[in-house]
Amino acid sequence: MxxxxxxxxxxxxxxxxEKKVIFASSLGTVFEWYDFYLYGSLAAFxxxxxxxxxxxxxxxxxxxxxxxxxxxxxxxxxALVFGRIGDLVGRKYTFLVTMTIMGLSTFLVGPV
Length: 112
Description:
It is a single chain. By secondary structure, the protein is an all-alpha fold. It has one domain (29-108). It is built from 5 helices and no strands. The chain has helices at 2-6, 16-41, 43-50, 57-89, 91-108. Helix 2 runs parallel beside helix 5 (91-108). The protein starts with a helix and ends with a helix. The mean pLDDT is 83.
């Protein structure tokens, strides 16, 4: 900003719409990383709960962390798909859909 002003350009403040976009995208990122944080923090408990006690503890933890890694591997594909959907139908709808999918998948871990 300072360079644009020094070069003779004028700087303008952010519009209300730009602030809403930044807030919504930041909120989505916070929810996403919170989900990863919870799973990563509870990976040891998840491994012992979902995998057979006959499997060694280290192997159960590795399996739980591999499931955690799958989320990171799939992330770029989700960005491509939902980025395109956001361009076609709008950011608000896409944000709602992604938050619903994340919430349902997190909720369904309990009953399963």
